[in-house]
């Protein structure tokens, strides 16, 4: 309907909001969402925000939930009739969510997320209330982040390497850190640690974080394997670089400059690798020497002096250097296009969820 805002629904979790959220929702709109979990499981709904203009019996604007399997209804809800608890546990695998509005003057609308009973530890993108102790090392916590957190309203401060200001939207920060894929959501392990003086901004996994000041606490996300072995976040050594072509440049002074594949290493000073000008379907190939578990990639432009950079790219992998498999990400439907750099100075991170197991990466 015309009242639907940001929506991402999967069988195991999702996020939905009214149009314009958190701005005022429009007059005379309606939206109906059907949530369907796997058979044998039940749905759990987290009310992040329900701010609909108050009226008697919520007649002007309302949120209504219905369980068609049992005939149970929840609501209607509006500002003067809000859910009694932030988490609604149903006994059904199917729930219909209906939002409608008439003429009104105020109200942010609604923001709701859901997961299933298969996820015993739950969190939401909207609040940290649901962080629960987990039987992992001391000071670690586990939350379940629903799918669809990337595009919700709210800011994040920090980056994957240093952690995030504790006022950041938790599950949105988890997407930025590359520990979950937005289209699937998932379990997140994190720790609350001492805050730092300054949080640096970064562009990672399609999200921009902000530069932020001191906070009392910061959020640090962990991959479970890193709790057992810190080496899983190490930078992998590249044995050999190869490329479809390289640029042999002759500058205005008549000097030669070779933009060869070996110059693609991230730590290289000066100019980088570049394909021959006008080359179609150019590629850069990394040989890791042996089959490795690759969890992500960092890209950067050529340098401040040479203002060149890659704005988007595909990734393929191979175990033998002959047979190549395109990376399709967690959806598995089509080749994933990774969002690259917007300038030649900053580093951009993209996570592979699930990881790539291969010797060769293109």
Automatic annotation (TrEMBL):
Compartment annotation: Membrane
Q: List the disulfide bonds.
A: 4-31
Q: Does the keyword Hydrolase apply?
A: no
Keywords, in A-Z order: Disulfide bond, Membrane, Phosphoprotein, Transmembrane, Transmembrane helix
Q: Which residues does the UniProt record annotate as the domain F5/8 type C?
A: 226-362
Bilayer topology reads: Single-pass type I membrane protein
Q: Where is the CUB domain?
A: 4-117
LCCL domain: residues covered: 122-219
Has keyword Protein biosynthesis? no
Which superkingdom heads the taxonomic lineage of this protein's source?
Answer: Eukaryota
| InterPro entries assigned to the protein according to its UniProt record, in alphabetical order | CUB_dom, FA58C, Galactose-bd-like_sf, LCCL, LCCL_sf, Neuropilin_MCO_CoagFactor, Sperma_CUB_dom_sf
**MF GO annotations:** signaling receptor activity
Gene Ontology CC terms: plasma membrane
Name of the featured protein = DCBD1 protein
